[in-house]
Design brief:
The protein has about 475 residues and is α/β, with parallel strands linked by helices. The protein has a single domain, classed as 3-Layer(aba) Sandwich (Alkaline Phosphatase, subunit A), CATH 3.40.720.10. About 25% of the residues lie in helices and about 15% in strands. It contains twelve helices and 14 strands. It has an eight-stranded mixed beta sheet. Strands 11-12-13-14 form a four-stranded antiparallel beta sheet, covered by helices on one side.
Length: about 475
């Protein structure tokens, strides 16, 4: 086992090119082994954060935190679905390789997780999660000393914070620590529709701007909370023009509540003398749709679902203030964290560390591959300028010029047939490559694994989250 306490000095020297010398440690700080906080914010789209330049900010705490971070401007996820998106972060391989997309599957033993890789190097690994799709039985808990789930409720962040501080206070300072925290407060509410009748819930003080505007809109029997959004998708109902902005504001209120709680977590880290030395990574598994392309919730591979925030505070705030424009995706997080602490990256990992790029090297990648949650043959490939969405069965293609049309409202496929053909060929090649790698890495199970209980399955099925 290597000396973990020495690894804090391994952060790439290239970031010093940005002119960002390490800041002095906060009062009370002590030298200890590496500390990694991986903070996953379920259902937070990129433009929900003020740091991404969307006008009035709902996220003052995250905006302040971003001042200490490298801000990744073009970070994407492989699918707008909690289970496969997080598993790609945990394994460094695409959903087409790890193949975790259904409730009766668990990760192949042939694919190691970040918990297993760090535990093998002496790290203490702890996890605190919320969403049913994050249950340890899918493979997320492999390598963890403890992996806990907060039971369904209307808000989660306070409980996640409390448990995080308890775990940090009880850590072994002679070991490195990897702490994974999963917050669900921005997600549409399906914890208890008898209490949470709004599609997006937050404490009332975060919804003061709405007044009584939400009263009466979402009270139909069987259509409270997320049910309302699902019903709108299923029957393509016409809505009062005021409803979509109202839904967006309800969502924003949940983000405000989450932001406030994250600010309190960061302050607690500073009081404990842990903030300066820690590597803190904040990201999301997917965004959320508000009928930009005809639907609610999150299923389609448009930017509102695929583009999410990524903020990384490196130890000593190295690189603080740098905004990285190159394309980065979920599979790149695992190799970045491993290389940061001198842990060898397994050869099968498809992701690439961002360290070389941040030190002035070439971009991490030239394209990001994503897939529709409900239509498995429908893929999206995004380059720096263009994005194609192509169905491998119907052969229907859409092409968007993201420089001119970041909202993906004008299909220019007919104007650039050669570009469409080229990007579709790349999609086919990447899909085929994933299939070949999956055959090499996955160990077939003789019987399906029932990770979710029947009660949990029914909870998801009743809201349209489960079809198998």
């Amino acid at each position: 086992m290597r000396n973990l306490a020495s690894r804090g000095s391994l952060l790439f020297g290239g970031l010093m090119m940005f002119g960002c010398a390490p800041e002095a440690s906060e009062p009370g700080a002590v030298e200890t082994s590496p500390l990694v906080l991986f903070v996953a914010l379920d259902t937070v789209r990129q433009d929900a954060l003020g740091v991404y330049g969307t006008g009035d900010s709902n996220t003052p705490a995250l905006d302040r935190f971003a001042e200490d971070c490298v801000v990744f401007e073009n970070f994407g996820v492989p699918m707008p679905f909690t289970l496969p998106s997080h598993m790609s972060m945990f394994t460094g391989v695409s959903p087409g390789v790890h193949r975790l997309e259904r409730s009766n599957q668990s990760l192949s033993t042939g694919i190691p997780t970040i918990g297993e890789l760090l535990a093998a190097e002496g790290f203490e690994c702890r996890g605190v999660v919320t969403n049913l799709w994050m249950k340890g039985g899918f493979g997320f808990d492999r390598g963890f000393d403890s992996y806990e789930r907060i039971l369904p409720q209307l808000t989660y962040a306070e409980q996640i914070n409390q448990r995080a501080i308890e775990l940090l206070e009880g850590r072994d300072p002679s070991r490195g620590m990897f702490l994974f925290l999963h917050y669900m407060d921005a997600h549409s509410d399906f914890a208890d529709v008898t209490e949470g009748t709004l599609p997006y819930y937050s404490p009332s003080e975060y919804r003061t701007a709405l007044g009584d505007a939400a009263d009466g809109y979402f009270q139909e029997p069987g259509e409270a909370a997320t049910d309302f959004l699902m019903a709108c998708n299923q029957d393509q109902r016409e809505l009062d023009p005021a409803v979509v902005p109202l839904l967006r504001e309800l969502y924003a209120a949940g983000v405000r509540h989450l932001d406030d709680q994250l600010g309190k977590l960061f302050e607690d880290l500073k009081k404990q003398g842990l903030y300066d030395q820690a590597l803190i990574l904040v990201t999301s598994d997917h965004g959320e749709e508000f009928r930009e392309h005809g639907k609610f919730i999150h299923a389609q591979p448009y930017e509102e679902c695929i583009a999410v925030p990524l903020l990384i505070k490196f130890p000593g705030q190295r690189g603080a203030g740098h905004r990285e424009p190159s394309l980065v995706e979920a599979i790149d997080l695992l190799p970045t964290l491993l290389e940061e602490f001198g842990v060898e990256v397994p050869g099968h990992v498809q992701g690439r560390s961002v360290r070389e790029t941040l030190a002035g090297g070439p971009p991490v990648r030239g394209a990001i591959l994503s897939r529709d949650k409900q239509r498995p043959a429908r893929f999206a490939l995004r380059t720096e300028r263009f994005k194609v969405i192509h169905d491998l069965v119907s052969q229907h293609s859409e092409l968007f010029d993201l420089e001119q049309d970041p909202g993906e409202q004008v299909d220019v496929a007919s104007e650039h047939p050669d570009k469409v053909a080229s990007l579709v060929r790349r999609i086919r090649g990447m899909v085929q490559e994933n299939e070949l790698m999956a055959k090499k890495l996955t160990v077939r199970q003789s019987t399906p694994t029932q990770v979710l209980t029947e009660e949990e399955r029914e909870t998801l099925r009743s809201l349209g989250y489960l079809e198998d």
